[in-house]
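Q: My labmate handed me this sequence with no annotations at all. I'd like to see what the chain might look like in three dimensions before we decide whether it's worth expressing. Could you predict it?
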Amino acid sequence: MRSMTRTFTDEELKRIINDLFKHFKKPWILEREFKPYLQAKGYTDEEIDEIWFQALRKGLINIGGTYVGRQREFVIIFKSPYEEE
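A: Here is what I predict for the chain of 85 residues:
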């Protein structure tokens, strides 16, 4: 069976990622911010997974993790490769 994974053009990915960082006005975005923002833009969960995977592969984002909150919950963060740590 053929996969229905969508491939985004370089221009689409750059626009999506640039819009994301402009919207949140910071060089890093929590996964729990990233997904709802893109869902509100009309992307499916599968497309969102593909966006971050393709953007990571093309060097448009870096992925890391950090602990947040009193419960020290580990969360995934997406970082702009163009900002200093």
